[in-house]
Amino acid sequence: MNLQKNIPLKEHTTFKIGGPAEYFVEATSAEELQEALLWAKENKQQYLVLGGGSNLLISDDGYKGLVIKLKLDKLEFIDTKVIVGPGVKLAYLLNTSLEHSLTGLEFAAGIPGTVGGAIRGNAGTFGLGMADVVKKIKYLDESNEIREMYGHQSGFAYRHSIFKENNWIIVQAELELEHGNTEKSRALIKERLDKRQEAQPNQPSAGCIFKNIRFEEVDDLEVLKNKHVEVDNFLQFKKIPAAYLIDRAGLKGYTIGDAQVSEIHANYIINKGQATAEQVIMLISFIKQQIRDKYGIQLQEEVQIVV
Ligand SMILES: Cc1cc2nc3c(=O)[nH]c(=O)nc-3n(C[C@H](O)[C@H](O)[C@H](O)COP(=O)(O)OP(=O)(O)OC[C@H]3O[C@@H](n4cnc5c(N)ncnc54)[C@H](O)[C@@H]3O)c2cc1C
Questions:
Q1: What tens digit of pLDDT does each residue of 244-272 get?
Q2: What's the domain range around 242?
Q3: Residue 56 CA, closest ligand 1 atom number
Q4: Which of 22, 29, 83, 283 falls 20 to 30 Å from 230 in CA-CA distance?
Q5: How far does residue 69's CA lie from ligand 1's centre (Å)?
Q6: pTM, 2 dp
């Protein structure tokens, strides 16, 4: 095991924030991952699994314990079935699938990060997500044993899965795609990427900071309507975008240090250069308090804060 020390984690996150990992190792196979987990257990160290670092805010003090960067990058196509390692980047999976004339992953266009992180959080767009394509998953449970589960058993919900709930580590997935019209698919992807380009900032960030608010989480939609929240506009997905509320609360551009609520997309906090995790956390707290005061809604973080 090639154990390294004091590796700066800001290099491993899209936010470009985070102090050093006390211990750091790359795992290129399930066995190497098991070995790393065993090392952590024997040495009484906590551990953090890292995919693409695109959904993480890591403390300025870094991580005390072992950070395991997943590099399991198997990718195999068997007709419409895809066997994929968790370390494969979603963008690479999407492009390679199209080269194999397979469609079904259009929803993943523009989502940074890896397959493992995406399955864990059921990442997606436009109402579709990993849950729609994952058929089987191999994962490590708390006893460090490899187990297998079907997609429909995986408790997938909005930005949620059984793997997130139990901190199980995905080591391989089997996806089911289809022989579709790849030209149409490429056109759709281009259209979506162009839209994202316009609607999202290109400074370092961790994507959306807060989850959108599902209608069932709101005590009384009428109360929101009385506060001029245009609830009827969101009937299709039955969710109120967090960005909409943050924007309405006048918080676009609000800045603490080098952390700023994006002027382009209110649910993004951007790192203007030297932002610290502390500044981002203060900004998150401020936004939550404002939204609670104005709309009686408690925003939930989509980003994972590691302190
Ligand atoms: C610009 C930008 C745009 C984004 N747009 C979207 C979007 O449209 N839709 C969307 O859903 N998300 C979006 N995101 C958020 C992010 O890309 C997704 O959540 C992504 O799936 C995270 O994957 P990752 O590999 O980067 O995970 P990481 O950030 O590395 O890790 C996130 C969590 O997953 C865990 N994890 C990583 N690998 C595994 C594994 N193999 N098994 C178990 N747990 C694991 C980590 O321990 C951590 O708890 C965006 C982010 C950015 C920066």
A1: 999 999 999 999 999 999 999 999 999 99
A2: 202-306
A3: 29
A4: 283
A5: 13
A6: 0.96
Pocket flag, ligand 1, residue 206 (CB < 6 Å): yes
Structure tokens at 222: 């009428």
Task: Determine the length of the chain.
Answer: 307
DSSP reduced 3-state for 36: helix
What pLDDT digit, counting tens, does each position of 9-22 carry? 999 999 999 999 99
- Mean pLDDT across the chain, nearest whole number? 97
Q: What is the CA radius of gyration of the chain?
A: 20
Q: How far apart are CA 276 and CA 271, in angstroms?
A: 8
Minimum CA distance residue for ligand 1 atom 1: 207
CA–centroid distance, residue 207 to ligand 1 (Å):
9
**What distance in Å separates the CA atoms of residue 296 and residue 41, rounded to the nearest whole number?**
43
Distance from the CA of 223 to the center of ligand 1, in angstroms?
34
Report the number of distinct structural domains present in the chain: 3
Measured distance CA(197)–CA(254) in Å, rounded? 22
User: How would residue 237 be classed by pLDDT, with cut points 50, 70 and 90?
Assistant: confident
